[in-house]
Write a structure and sequence with these properties.
This protein has 263 residues and is mainly α. α1 packs across α10, α2 (18-38) packs antiparallel against α3 (42-50) and α6 runs antiparallel to α11 (235-262). It has helices spanning 2-13, 18-38, 42-50, 56-74, 84-107, 110-131, 143-157, 161-169, 175-200, 208-229, 235-262. It contains eleven helices and no strands.
């Protein structure tokens, strides 16, 4: 509790007001509830809404810390189910995408990045609703484009999980293997991003660590509730609601970016 209060004071001192902190806590709780139920989705839920409250270059490294903590809790529980061959196919292309994505994050202004995030969210969510949650079997050659694009999106927005899911759901039919492999992949990419973000100076931002300290208990609460609800609420219903929320978030990001350009 003392650590949480210390984080709160740190955020107040750097200009993040209490209302924004409470809103950010609610966003992160919801994001990790989804993560606990599905094995992915934390950043893709949180980042679009957190960028309404804090800058993208603050939100992305904060969510990295939370994802790393959650991935170590969830992804390492069932290592026997992790499919290492698929990780080895994706790994090199993800690494290339991560390096390129971090370069873009630290060098490009935030408005075009927010516009890109909005477009990606809108396109992906509409596609998932239309596909009704079904994934086609795909060949291992898809590791290159999906690994590379997932690495780029992971570095810039922390939202590569859905892209990795497209690949692994098309390769693995066993739900337990798919969940364990996706969670482990998210953890490994989080470790790689932590190194790249530290080298690039993103963690010198004074808002990042206090905000992460404030949000960690919120994420833990959402994760615990999501794990309890996993077998009580149909995943398909959760995902349908998720895609609708992300469509709204995507439209909002696109509209806000367009107004910024016009202004």
């Amino acid at each position: 509790m003392n650590a949480w209060l210390h984080a709160e004071m740190g955020l107040v001192n750097i200009g993040i007001n209490f209302t924004s902190m409470v809103a950010a806590g609610g966003v992160v709780t919801l994001a990790y509830l989804v993560y606990g139920m599905t094995g992915f989705g934390s950043s893709i839920v949180a980042i679009p809404m957190l960028t309404q409250l804090v800058p993208l270059r603050t939100a992305t490294p904060v969510m990295l810390i939370l994802d790393l903590a959650a991935g170590m809790l969830v992804g390492m529980r069932n290592l026997k189910a992790v499919q290492m061959k698929e990780l080895q196919r994706l790994g090199p292309w993800i690494c290339i995408g991560l390096v390129l994505g971090v370069t873009v994050l630290v060098s490009v202004s935030e408005k075009p990045l927010e516009l890109l995030l909005g477009v990606c969210l809108l396109a992906y969510s509409l596609w998932r609703i239309k596909s009704r949650g079904e994934f086609r079997q795909i060949g291992d050659g898809w590791a290159l484009p999906l690994g590379f694009s997932g690495g780029c999106l992971t570095a810039v927005f922390g939202t590569g999980g859905p892209v990795y899911t497209i690949y692994l759901a098309g390769r693995l039919t066993d739900p337990e293997q798919r969940r364990a492999t996706i969670s482990t992949l998210i953890t490994l990419t989080a470790v790689a991003r932590l190194l790249l973000f530290s080298i690039s100076g993103l963690y010198r931002n004074p808002a990042v660590l206090p905000l992460a300290g404030w949000l960690l208990p919120c994420g833990a609460m959402g994760l615990a509730v999501g794990a309890r609800l996993r077998n009580k609420i149909p995943t398909s219903s959760v995902l349908t609601l998720l895609w609708i929320v992300l469509i709204v978030a995507g439209v909002n990001l696109i509209g806000r970016s367009a107004i910024g350009y016009l202004g």
